[in-house]
Amino acid sequence: MSKFSSDFLIGAATAAHQVEGNNIHSDYWAMEHMAHSTFNEPSLDAVDHYNRYEEDIKLMAQAGLSAYRFSIEWARIEPEEGKFDETAIAHYRSVLECCHANHITPIVTMMHFTSPVWVIQNGGWENERTVDAFARYCGYVVERLGDLMGYVVTINEANMGLQVAAIEERYRRQMMAKMSQMQAQGLEGAAQIGMNFNTMMENMQLQKQENKDVFGTEEPQNFVSGRTAEGDILVMRAHQAAKKAMKAAKPELKIGLSLSLHDIQAAEGGEENALHEWDEEFSHYVPYILDDDFFGLQNYTRSIIGVDGIKPVPQGAETTQMDYEFYPEALEHVIRRVSREFGAIGKEMPVMVTENGIATEDDTRRVTFIGRATDGVAACMRDGIPVLGYMYWSLMDNFEWQKGFSMKFGLIAVDRATQERMPKPSLEFLGKQKH
């Protein structure tokens, strides 16, 4: 018996900056090339997906996948404020057409962490101007490509700024308490993004002049900068404005956003802290997404919360390259918790698992992770929870932000010297979850 029905979307995800290469007009490209960069290496041509997307999409189709979540790069579409690049639009039309030709449902993300440099020069994700700028960009794209689009994620992990702010604050407290460098490094597994928090703090003073030269300010507000409470809500308003602009162009478009969620579990004495942590990650966003068409849920592991906050990974537990605990059951727990919370206010919100995965060199562990995680999704659906699909992160080993190319999340390995694609057994295994 098949684990999922024929209309269930099972696929993989990428982000433009992490796979396309040569995203020269984005804030991340600028940060990667600074003398005191916190990035282990620059993205350069990444895995050349910009030129090899057809090959990559065909590999998904041949393995039995039915959906592809990818992002359109704002910095390519609008490299200068108000100046749109029709060549870039034509490229993404070709990507969408390739998906349809291979019977792959496209799930398009409009902003996956990276922004045009000019957005940051204008004040970035703490500035009111960004709300209208983002909406204008989204409306422009849908007016030209909406005929090929069905599902859209406006903003990837819209809560990432608050997660980063919380980690930065914990880091500062640790440093003030004169904790060892080894203890401090444990924080890097607390955010579901590849970041080098130790290097960030050490380089902060050195970077200020470089930031001023490139962005016009010593403290640029990139999307993954530590967010203020006001900036957090500004992101929600940007989502709502973008949704309105896209619906005006194509009313039937299914639109949501995604949040980075941990399976938050309370240790003895940590119950109140755990509730606060969940509210920060999810609950306080609910009023801003109630009218969305679906919710994009992204999960990789759990967080155990004690009296003093997030506890270290349990002693002896298996961990991934990202220092996350190997805990695929987290996904089912989070889907159920999100569903209960929507249900408590009388809302049945379809869930799309827009990211779930593991960084490891051992593909047998990836196969195990996918099997257990999708078992959990299937269990949720048997209990009546509406789950639209499961997108594994990531289609290919790619550029994991500040950690460079060292993290192996992919279903497909890539020889970056030749850009040869080498599918792993996990790719075929994922495709078989529907058969």
From TrEMBL:
The keyword Hydrolase applies. It comes from the Bacteria. Keywords: Hydrolase. This is Glycoside hydrolase family 1 protein.
